[in-house]
Amino acid sequence: MDKPRWGYWCECWTEDLTDDEAGPALRASFDAYSAAQADRWIAVALRTLSPALDADASQEAWTWLYDDRVATRKALIRVEPCKVSLTQASTRITWAIRPVLFLPLVQREGNKLPTRAYHFKDFASARPLPSE
């Protein structure tokens, strides 16, 4: 990839609804390059999780898979962010997808590092700082 490319950044978050002090925790992320790939990521997760979910959460999962997935795909094609959430016991699981522009990274292979880069020692051989 040598040019910026449009795609979707996908995340899966969990939140304990009984703990007011703990915020949402990021569990997984995924870079998708099409709306189909982004919503498929959620669909695979929901199909994988559904046998372990309670009846209400499983119903939420299958409702999205059969009824709401088309609306999610259409929103992604319109370059709109989307969320899919379900609640299992006291845990809310949320998949979030947002359109992004992926920027290419510079390849370092074959490039010479700056001179000062070779003055640093590796972490294992570094001495601890003197205590004050």
Index terms:
single chain; 132 residues; alpha+beta; four-stranded antiparallel β-sheet; 2 helices; 4 strands; disordered C terminus
Short description, anyone?
Helices cover 29% and strands 30% of the residues. By secondary structure, the protein is α+β, with helices and mostly antiparallel strands.
Describe this structure in words.
This protein has 132 residues and is of the alpha+beta class. Helices cover 29% and strands 30% of the residues. A four-stranded antiparallel sheet has the order 2-1-4-3. Strand 1 and strand 2 form a beta hairpin. Helix 1 runs antiparallel to helix 2. It is extended and about 60 Å long.
Q: Mind telling me the C-alpha Rg? A: 21 Å
User: Approximately how much helix is present in the residues?
Assistant: 25-40%
How many DSSP H or I helices?
Answer: 2
How widely separated are the two ends? 49 Å
- Within the largest sheet, what's the order of strands? 2-1-4-3
Give me the strand/helix succession. EEHHEE
Q: Stretches where pLDDT falls below 50 for ≥5 residues?
A: 123-132
Percent of sequence in beta strands: 25-35%
Structural class: alpha+beta
Shape: extended
- Per DSSP E runs of 2 or more residues, the count of β-strands stands at 4
Quick one: biggest sheet? 4 strands, antiparallel
Average pLDDT confidence is 84
